[in-house]
Amino acid sequence: MDTTDLVLAILHHLLVFSLAGIIAAEFVLVRNEMNAATVRRLAGIDRHYGIVAMLVVAVGAARVYWGLKGWEFYVYNWAFWAKMAAFAGVGLLSIMPTMRFLSWRRLAGADPDWRVPEAQLAPVRTCIRAEAALFLLIPVFAAAMARGYGL
């Protein structure tokens, strides 16, 4: 048995589950009547989103390079590339909310009584919903890969 592969798999799964939790937290926090404290909390959570996403990529790359299956398993597997496309799509969808969170944090820092305008919330909610929906495909493709689909 290869302990390296086991440790990398455990880390990868924990990070992906953490990412799902962070998306859920953002989904819950983006609501009507967002005040300065909520905006600061949301910006902090989103910072962790970026850090965890980078760690998912780093550990995933380590699994491809040092894992038991070898890089050939991944390079020629359509389920792997579908999973990567879903992950990239989630990342692209997260750009607009991140930009809004940063903007809101600056505005809330300048005025503690500032509230997020309702008109700005709807598009952010839509992006986070789309992120969550697309994120659901990642474990679907991962399960398919684990069972030999995609080769």
Which structural class fits the helix and strand makeup? mainly alpha
Distance between the termini: 24 Å
Shape: elongated
What is the overall number of helices? 7
Helix amount: over 70%
- Describe the sheet with the most strands: none
Query: Beta-strand percentage?
Result: under 5%
The overall pLDDT average reads: 94
Number of strands: 0
Give the SSE string.
Answer: HHHHHHH
Radius of gyration: 18 Å
Q: Which stretches of 5+ consecutive residues score pLDDT under 50? A: none
Overview of this structure, please?
Helix content is 81%, strand content 0%. It contains seven helices and no strands. It has helices spanning 3-29, 36-66, 71-75, 78-93, 95-110, 118-135, 137-146. The longest helix is centred in the middle third of the chain and has 31 residues, at 36-66. It is elongated.
Characteristics:
151 residues, mainly alpha, 7 helices, elongated
Task: Give a nutshell description of this structure.
The protein is an all-alpha fold and 151 residues long. The protein is 81% helix and 0% strand.
Write the topology of this structure.
Blueprint: H1 3-29, H2 36-66, H3 71-75, H4 78-93, H5 95-110, H6 118-135, H7 137-146
Helix pairs in contact: 1-2, 1-6, 2-5, 4-6, 4-7
